């Protein structure tokens, strides 16, 4: 089952039923992937923590915690799931299929964690470690020690608070795109500064981050 997915993650299951369960959403029936997701979530935390510890010996515990939080958040998992692409292999109920569940960020992120849990049960820690490290290699390569690890929304909030200005307002402006690649558009407004930006992303969170990043760019350009 799902030989192309096994090729994408560079892992061949001994027990194919584990992969089948990992790809089964509860809307499709039982056994479904929620228990495997629970396992995968914990395993992912452990693998990412170890990689950060070994790859970046000079960064602090606090910075490692922030990096890990960013690497295991839903939007990161969603983007990794799209790259496989995991949605092509999901087993969903009819209602979820019709509503575009195969491209929903939460479903894809949870399913990827479930796959990690399934690999751990099938091939042990070494097996899942190789799968996760391979998927995350490009993200590890982008990490620059010493660079601010705070996300754009946090940086914007701190900038405004430091100047005793009102916090930004985020509003969902719309959704669009094909069912397999839905896009969210979010508006970020700071009325007192007369700034309004838009951001688009595969999830509302990602769109908010991009909108906040564009506000920061405007503020930097204005000096």
Description:
It contains 9 helices and 3 strands, in the order H-H-H-H-H-H-H-H-E-E-E-H. With 223 residues, it is mostly helical. It folds into 2 domains: 3-141, Ribonuclease iii, N-terminal Endonuclease Domain, Chain A; 152-221, Double Stranded RNA Binding Domain, CATH 3.30.160.
Features:
223 residues; Double Stranded RNA Binding Domain; 10% strand; 9 helices; 3-stranded antiparallel beta sheet; mainly alpha; 3 strands; Ribonuclease iii, N-terminal Endonuclease Domain, Chain A
Summarize the structure.
With 223 residues, the protein is mostly helical. The protein contains 9 helices and 3 strands.
Task: Please describe the topology of this protein.
Layout (H helix, E strand, L loop, with lengths): L2 H7 L6 H7 L11 H22 L5 H12 L1 H10 L10 H5 L6 H37 L10 H11 L6 E8 L6 E8 L4 E7 L2 H18 L2
Antiparallel strand pairs: 1-2, 2-3
Helix pairs in contact: 2-7, 3-4, 3-7, 5-7, 8-9
Q: How would you spell out the order of helices and strands?
A: HHHHHHHHEEEH
Which stretches are low in confidence, meaning pLDDT under 50 for 5 or more residues running?
A: none
Number of domains: 2
Number of helices: 9
Q: Give the CATH superfamily of the largest domain.
A: Ribonuclease III domain
What does the largest sheet look like?
3 strands, antiparallel
CATH topology name of the largest domain: Ribonuclease iii, N-terminal Endonuclease Domain, Chain A
The CATH top-level class label of the largest domain: Mainly Alpha
Termini separation (Å)? Answer: 57 Å
Architecture of the largest domain, CATH level 2?
Orthogonal Bundle
Q: Radius of gyration, rounded? A: 19 Å
In what order do the strands lie side by side in the largest sheet?
1-2-3
Question: Approximately how much beta-strand content do the residues carry?
Answer: 5-15%
Helix content: 55-70%
Q: Could you report the average pLDDT, rounded to the nearest whole number?
A: 90
Number of strands: 3
By helix and strand content, what is the structural category? Answer: mainly alpha
Large-scale geometry: globular
